[in-house]
Amino acid sequence: MAVERLQKLMSRAGIASRREAELLIQQGRVTINGRRAILGDRADLSVDDVRVDGEPLKINTPRLYIMLNKPVGVVTAVTPQHQETRLTVRHLIPIEGHLYPAGRLDADSEGLVLMTNDGDLAERLTHPRYQKPKVYEVTVQGYIPDEALEIWSRGVMLDDGMTLPVEIKVLDRNAQTSTLQITMTEGRKRQIRRVADTLGYPVQRLVRTHFATLSLGNLRPGEWRHLTETEVATLKAFAYSLTMTPRRFVPRPAKKSQSLRRNGRPSHSAESPERTKSEKQPARPPRRPAKPSSKPRPPRSLQRKKPSAAKRPPRR
Fold first, then answer.
1. 118 has catalytic annotation
2. Which stretches within the chain are classed as H helix?
């Protein structure tokens, strides 16, 4: 085996995605030949002894792909955090081995969560640069008008920056509640709830119905199932497709030529690329210097002043 970064080895072994592997390294849960690993370390599994939480790192682990309908009140995590008493999504799937969620879904929300040990696939599906779509069915309080939906679809300024545009479809709307279908490629923490609160329409229920090419279907809350071979193949083809778009694109104004004059007109040496040779204006001839006068004028102090009208003698 070749020498590779620990994050990549852990991802290939199905321990976690690369970003989550970095957290495990920072927490001191990874060792190389008995010493604590740090970010940037590399290893060769054919020579080095790499362990995670004391267990040897192995890459020949079979891949698992499981769809879970997460109920409300369950935390999207593998292990509970300090003083956490709620169940995690890992507790709902009684399968041995490493298994972790691809992406997050807050505890107050429910719906589709992909559980896997394929770190590369999880990275492709969840990293912001790839912009993989997720669909949510959201019920907000009150009758949300079209003007608010237009603002939401264009983007809303939050405390951590402007949100990306989203697609919104109205499923039902009355005086008490409004049910929306929101398709988005961004995944900030509690983003939908924060945007809805900013617009003045708090979320009452939030369900993730689609994730990439997966659909929740008839899976009930708390139930899970393995993905079929066709679903896995379709999901991988979509995840590794080259149709990704940049996260943000801001057009920059064209740079002005350095040979422009202060008044905005180009000099004779600066030629517009759009002009052809036939359209070039002829250069102006240089100005001729003024001819000097044959009789030099005397200084202003010695010049005779003309008498004013009041001092002139009357005519006879």
1. no
2. 6-12, 18-26, 119-126, 146-154, 191-199, 229-239
Give the list of residues 6+ apart from residue 62 with CB closer than 8 angstroms, or none.
none
Instruction: Examine the domain organization and report whether 35 and 183 are in the same domain.
Output: no
Q: For residue 29, what are the domain limits?
A: 4-56
Catalytic residue, chosen from 41, 48, 106, 197, is 106
Q: pLDDT (tens digit, 0 to 9) for every residue of the chain, 316 residues total?
A: 568 888 888 887 877 778 888 888 999 999 999 899 999 898 888 788 899 888 888 776 788 999 999 999 999 988 777 777 889 999 999 988 778 899 889 999 999 999 998 888 988 898 888 889 999 999 999 999 999 999 999 999 999 899 999 999 999 999 999 999 999 998 888 999 999 999 999 999 999 999 999 999 999 999 999 999 999 999 999 998 865 444 444 444 455 444 444 454 544 444 444 444 445 555 666 666 666 555 666 666 555 655 555 556 666 5
